[in-house]
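Deliverable D2.4 — example input (structure tokens):
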């Protein structure tokens, strides 16, 4: 009996854990199949980067490169590690990660802009790119005209230990700020309407060319009495759009009269006030190009109160193609600017700079808005 028991005992199946270890030791390429299943049996366990490296049979540094989307990993290895990360539910420990790489994994976003939809769209685009590589965004409104502006930004970088900074217009137009960030070694990307920096530091929108497209659209409709509500003259975007629009009209034999130019603030209220002034001119304009969609909405209100029909009596063009544009009645013709894409591109470009994965020179990152023609465009009737 004793012999039979001993013999029977030697025929017991190998425990699952031992079998899994055998697979790891003898067949590294097959690890991704059994390893995630083994770890899923312990849902309360918090997996570490060392676990992922062991299961993938690679170094911890290779796992880190995959997490940070480094290009210096073979696609086969990247796929294997990504599958293990997904199956195990592994998430990097931000504190441990920061200590290992001497980073905070925090990016600052600095703005001074009354146009809330613009800021929100840039923010959402940036967050989508940053969170894919484990970064978070520190949003910091500021007053660019304050005497403490530069010292405030310097303190922000030091206090939060920011790894880099995204700068929105009009703050991004401040060259002194860019000089200060270079001085303290803080990588940055500026979203701008003009090439005020080296290409590797820019995501540039083509505001001048976009305004020219609006001018061409209005000229083709047959408008000759055309007005424009610009943004604050201290904004570079406002200057670019005004010059692009007026020059394009001149190319078509049309003149943008100074009497038909009003300075707004990229807000609904300023749009309504500027429209009141412009529509009081005699003769009144038959078309108004507004600085953004919020401004255009203000023009709608004034036109309604004056009993003007859109577009029969007045054509209105906006800029940005915010959600508001398609909700107005009639719907607003506007220049679609890919604001979320701009935020995403700026974040991706900044991460490349921080990770030092860019080449010796990065080409300019440029976005091209285009005109979306809706119901507010029409031919002049007077």
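Example output (designed residues):
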């Amino acid at each position: 009996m004793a012999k039979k028991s001993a013999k029977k005992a030697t025929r017991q199946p190998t425990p699952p854990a031992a079998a899994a270890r055998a697979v790891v030791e003898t067949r590294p390429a097959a690890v991704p199949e059994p390893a995630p299943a083994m770890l899923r049996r312990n849902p309360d366990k918090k997996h570490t980067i060392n676990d992922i490296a062991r299961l993938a049979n690679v170094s911890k540094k290779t796992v880190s490169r995959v997490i940070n989307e480094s290009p210096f990993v073979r696609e086969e290895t990247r796929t294997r590690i990504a599958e293990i990360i997904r199956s195990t539910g592994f998430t990097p420990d931000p504190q441990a990660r920061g200590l290992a790489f001497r980073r905070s994994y925090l990016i600052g976003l600095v703005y001074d802009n009354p146009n809330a939809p613009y800021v929100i769209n840039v923010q959402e685009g940036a967050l989508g790119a940053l969170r894919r590589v484990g970064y978070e965004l520190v949003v910091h409104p500021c007053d660019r005209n304050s005497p403490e502006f530069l010292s405030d930004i310097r303190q922000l970088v030091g206090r939060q230990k920011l790894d880099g900074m995204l700068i929105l217009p009009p703050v991004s137009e401040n060259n002194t700020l860019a000089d200060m960030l270079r001085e303290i070694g803080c990588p940055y990307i500026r979203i701008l309407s003009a090439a005020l920096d080296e290409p590797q530091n820019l995501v540039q929108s083509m505001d001048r060319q976009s305004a020219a497209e609006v001018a061409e659209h209005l000229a083709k409709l047959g408008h000759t009495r055309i007005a424009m509500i610009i943004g604050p003259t201290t904004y570079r975007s406002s200057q670019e759009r005004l010059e692009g629009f007026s020059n394009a009209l001149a190319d078509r034999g049309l003149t943008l009269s100074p009497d038909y130019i009003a300075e707004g603030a990229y807000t609904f209220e300023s749009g309504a006030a500027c429209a009141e002034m412009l529509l009081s001119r005699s003769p009144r304009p038959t078309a108004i190009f507004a600085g953004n969609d919020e401004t255009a909405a203000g023009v709608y209100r004034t036109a309604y109160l004056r009993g003007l029909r859109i577009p029969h009596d007045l054509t209105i063009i906006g800029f940005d193609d915010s959600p508001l544009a398609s909700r107005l009645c009639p719907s607003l013709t506007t220049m679609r600017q890919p604001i979320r894409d701009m935020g995403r591109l700026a974040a991706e470009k900044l991460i490349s700079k921080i990770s030092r994965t860019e080449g010796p020179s990065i080409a300019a990152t440029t976005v091209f808005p285009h005109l979306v023609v809706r119901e507010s465009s029409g031919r002049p009737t007077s």
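The two ends are 113 Å apart (CA to CA).
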